[in-house]
Design brief:
Belongs to the acylphosphatase family. The protein has 90 residues and is an alpha+beta fold. The chain is 27% helix and 43% strand.
């Protein structure tokens, strides 16, 4: 089943390669969506695909030695039809 999540990541998530790590892992897991830095030092992401693969993406990000996620806010939102890639914004 195709699901989409809107996620805010808090912690040491900027200046540590978070967006590029997220993009590579998402592509490897065949997920689509986007990730971007926020002005307040946090990171925002929308990710779409199989729920198990989305959870695996979160595990990949949490296991990175440079990234320290202290808190996440996750909302399930409607899927976007026709989306074909995962990109870094901003």
């Amino acid at each position: 089943m195709l699901i989409r999540k809107h996620v805010y990541f808090y912690g040491r998530v900027q200046g540590v390669g978070f967006r590029w790590r997220a993009m590579q892992a998402a592509k490897d897991l065949h997920l689509t969506g986007w990730v971007r830095n926020m002005y307040n030092g946090n990171v925002e992401m929308e990710v779409q695909g199989n729920g198990v693969m989305i959870e695996r993406l979160f595990q990949e990000l949490n296991s990175d030695r440079f990234i320290r996620i202290e808190k996440t806010e996750i909302l399930q939102i409607p899927a976007v039809e026709g989306e074909s890639e995962f990109s870094v914004r901003g």
